[in-house]
Amino acid sequence: MSTTVDTTQMSAVAFSAQQQEDIRALVTRYPQPLSALLPVLHMAQQHFGYLPMNVQQLVADTLNVTLMQVREVVTFYTMFKEQPTGTYLMEVCTNVSCMLNGAVELLDHMCNTLGIQPGETTPDGLFTLAEVECAGACGSAPVVQVNNIYHEKVTAETMDALITNIQTGAETGGVA
Amino acid sequence: MISSDPSKVTAICFDRINIPNMHILDVAKKYGAYAFLPTVLQEMDGPKIISEVKTSGLRGRGGAGFPTGLKWSFVPRNTNKPTYLLCNADEGEPGTFKDRDLLRLDPHLLIEGMIMAGFALNVRDAYIYIRGEFLHEANVINAAIAEAYAAGLLGERILGTNYSLDLTVHRGAGAYICGEETALIESLEGRAGRPRFKPPFPAVEGFYQSPTVVNNVESLTTIPAILEHGGNWHSQIGVPNSTGMKIFSVSGHVNKPGNYEVPMGMPLHVLIEEYCGGLQHGDVPKVIIPGGSSTPWLGPEHYDVPMAYDELHKAGSMLGSGAVIIMDETADVVAITRRLSHFYAHESCGQCTPCREGTGWLERVMLRLEAGRCNAQDLVVLEEASRHMDGRTICALAAGAAAPILSLLKMFPDEVRSYLTESKVGGG
User: Fold this and answer.
1) What is the predicted ipTM?
2) Which of B135, B251, B323 is nearest residue A148 as measured by Cβ atoms?
3) Does CATH place domain B239-327 in 3.20.20.70?
């Protein structure tokens, strides 16, 4: 990946008046504005879907910090995405407690059902599959997060049903 | 209700957790939330509260087990800098899932504990740093905070007293290392979560170089009961040097995994057999991880170990966060260790060379071992590299990465050898 920022590729993006007001209120909660960087990035990702360079520049300008400060944070934290994901981000925990309860087999099953490997998106743009680290719900392993909604004690059958319901529109999984 | 007789206490943090709608202020108040808060704000002061917490013997429930009252006493009392209170809700140690229940089911207990801790430490601004994945939990606690503000329990002049406190929920964004308290502070300042050199300790120079106390969710939710019933009361629950109740997050090969709050010192087999429905296969575990994935493994000979700080240390491991992972005879310990080595390589923040290079290197060797492409000499190097990572870095992540590998090599030499090139037909 190039380290130079190609500004010609950066189309103009903006926060709405309401978002700007929310950010101003957020900044007052902290001793210094830089503290609001993670919450503002969450807000931006929620709104724009992911964090391309023009959105990162917008966040930097909004908080009056450098683009470098924003880039350092975006690239450090797993939840911040620089590339678009499918409408449904399926994150399968395969860490120890989930692994002991069939998470690896579940992930294989999902790869087969969706026809993609972890890190890939289905051609229709509906699903992105990812293998993730401990979700902190080990008592109900295996755990799959679908757009940050926890699905617990997941089986191949319940996952197939969820995928079918999303494909047919019967389940929105938090997507409006 | 929590009994004032220490011998009759059945729960502290989880006392009202199973009552429906406990996250709603009116319901929580009906069951005693904030009832003792006016007494604390009107009749107690910082030194008195810190003294009670010291007497209680409470040790930090996040993993390190440092005495909470002592931590509080390190905060300078005559300073013109603000003092900050940060709740560590970054729960990410594999196997740990106790704080999630406290956050989503009884958020007012945490808020009350933070008001009391904040009052004791003269804090004006407090934060709950919650892992980014816990979006639902963040929403629940934000709603509870909004209700608390509306009821005069947060903000200016709490309940008409001279004490004011603002409380803000701050979401992380997927980084295990931010559970380390100085990395958490870096992250809360809007930077990558890279642990700081200590000293200075956060109690003296923490959040924006000001005195800062970082406490785990479970520690803070224990405070209201300690202040209501007294430090002496709390010190009589559990066993010496490991006082009080403890939430154990039990997962892996047990029939009823879950969070169980029991008195400190309960023998592990009692916890597993009487609370967790026993093992999925066999009578004794193949591997016991007593305190989260970073703590050394124990074998079946320790199945009766009392779940307490000193006793687990004596057995060769640690209580950690109280995250008990049980593996029965069906567990593939090489595959499990390889998976854990991937976790630590992924989560290393990268600032210390032994950890950044070591964790990736350990993962690559574990991948080769599992694929049958290691020889006996590789095992020697694997062990030496693990030993050399420990104690040579700013934080404990490298030691956590070494723990499962050293445990594997020590406890299962034959199983490991069966993976070596010379043991595999056609391997190499």
Assistant:
1) 0.94
2) B135
3) no
